[in-house]
Specification:
This protein has a six-stranded mixed sheet with strand order 3-2-1-4-5-6, with helices on both faces. Strand 5, helix 7 and strand 6 form a beta-alpha-beta unit. The chain has 209 residues and is an alpha/beta fold. The protein starts with a strand and ends in an 18-residue tail after the last helix.
Length: 209
């Protein structure tokens, strides 16, 4: 049996920049998240955060419908540092809640950040949160799907988030590349049984290692 997996997706609204029609934005985001939607019945928990909004659908139909409210309220705006903080903290809180459930089997906790152009401006805030969440056992991976060329410095900033969260970092090309990156992260998290273990060994007097 595979290890349990609790997964949250943190979405940058700037991924949908240039799309004013609500239904078009909904369809575009559903297409981006197809690999996640297909696995709703495989993972123990899958949720999505966008700013202050959190959704935890149980099936594909609920997922598409649940996207309407955050897409309508947030639109394509650039999230502020406080909104990114709230998004990450909400994701972490949902993961910790699932992990603390005595009826669930302990397993991997992970956040996949799906970044457009809005992540780079708030790297310090997001990196600090990724580090804090990692102390509690949550991994944070970053997928840069902005489609925009970045300098080495800008790419390094996004990599910094993934490094702080001990997760993966991807710059996929096109929709198929995005789906492959999500699938790879999902499979990697699903294989994790333990990570970053700390052992405390108390030796008897006169015993040396």
């Amino acid at each position: 049996r595979r290890p349990a997996l609790n997964l949250m997706i943190s979405v940058d609204p700037r991924l949908l920049a240039g799309q004013r029609d609500l239904e078009v934005r909904q369809t575009k985001l559903v297409e981006m998240l197809k690999p996640i939607i297909r696995k709703l019945n495989v993972a123990d928990q899958v949720g999505l955060t966008m700013g202050s909004y959190v959704i935890s659908p149980k099936n594909p139909e609920q997922f598409k419908e649940a996207l309407l409210k955050p897409l309508k309220q947030i639109g394509q705006e650039q999230l502020s540092s406080s909104q990114w903080r709230q998004s990450m903290e909400e994701a972490g809180a949902r993961l910790n809640q699932a992990s603390a459930d005595p009826h669930r089997t302990p397993g991997a906790q992970a956040i996949i950040m799906l970044c457009g152009t809005g992540c780079v401006a708030h790297v310090n805030t997001i990196s600090q949160l990724a580090h804090t969440l990692n102390i509690d056992g949550t991994l944070t991976s970053v997928i840069d799907h902005s489609g925009q060329a970045k300098t080495y410095a800008q790419t390094s900033l996004l990599w910094q988030i993934a490094a702080s969260g001990h997760g993966g970092f991807w710059i996929p090309k096109g929709p198929q590349g995005l789906h492959k990156a999500i699938d790879e992260e999902f499979n990697r998290f699903s294989r994790v049984v333990a990570r970053l273990l700390r052992l405390s060994i108390k030796l008897s007097a006169g015993v040396e290692l």
